[in-house]
Specification:
This protein has 250 residues and is α+β, with helices and mostly antiparallel strands. The chain has nine helices and six strands. Strand 4 and strand 5 (161-167) form a beta hairpin.
């Protein structure tokens, strides 16, 4: 499990994507600590920002959260719209007016893989995408949630980003193989040939209670076998610790 600790909901959610020893990442309440954590990040990593909004900001040269925070609020509102611009500008400055309610489950879940060196190897990237699907699927099933939409952010060697988003074809799901397939498809949609990849980030969005998600009968023996295997893997990982059992390719 990954835990982010910070003075606001949004900062804590972002911190949970970069956990340290023990699975906990803490961002201090001091202004300097918040800015050091938040400002260097690509604008697409800001909690609550959508892919289209991130693309719009980057076309205006707003590539990092720090640049966004330095802009006048009125400028951001002209770019993104009044209410949305104000909200995104506040998030960039570390302001989140929502009260923290411990019983509420998150509305999104994300994970990231950064490569030690920029990679050209498609197999390395696919292994990272599989690893993201395993981690997010496990997290959603433990929370008893399902995701309706998956977003993939690919960070390139020059720090540019390509973002793709798609709804799951079979409806909301927390199954690893469903997440894996949509991440593979989203990466293929990017159409990279010889691009050097620095990092990949996956975000599951529009989360909902798994108990309210209908499970459609597949009538597919292969899928049924996958789901039974997934249940066995989940049971082993709950007993012996997360990541004990998983695909070797990851």
């Amino acid at each position: 499990m990954k835990i982010g600790v910070a003075s606001t909901w949004a900062l804590a959610a972002m911190a949970s994507n970069e956990t340290g020893p023990g699975g906990i990442r803490t961002v201090g309440a001091a202004r300097a600590e918040m800015e050091a954590f938040l400002y260097p990040r690509p604008v697409a990593e800001l909690y609550g920002i959508g892919p289209a909004q991130a693309r719009t900001l980057t076309t205006f040269g707003v590539h990092s959260v720090g640049i966004l925070a330095a802009l006048p609020e009125s400028t951001v509102q002209r770019i993104l719209g009044g209410r949305t611009g104000r909200l995104i500008h506040e998030r960039a400055r570390g302001i989140d007016r929502r009260a923290v309610v411990p019983t509420d489950l998150p509305y999104s879940a994300s994970a990231q893989r950064r490569f030690p060196i920029d990679t050209l190897d498609p197999a390395t990237v696919r292994a990272a995408l599989l690893s993201l699907a395993v981690e997010l699927g496990d997290r959603l099933r433990n929370r008893h949630q399902t995701a309706r939409t998956v977003t993939l952010t690919v960070t390139l060697a020059g720090r540019g980003q390509v973002i793709r988003s798609r709804r799951l074809d079979g409806g909301p799901s927390a199954h690893t193989d469903d997440l894996r397939q949509v991440l593979y498809d989203l990466y293929a949609d990017c159409g990279f040939q010889r691009a050097r990849i620095r990092a990949v980030t996956a975000r599951c969005e529009q989360l909902q209670d798994a108990a309210r998600t209908p499970e459609q009968l597949s009538l597919d023996p292969h899928r049924d076998d996958q789901l039974r295997t997934e249940s066995a893997i989940d049971a082993l990982n709950r007993r012996f610790g997360a990541g004990t059992v998983g695909p070797a390719a990851a």
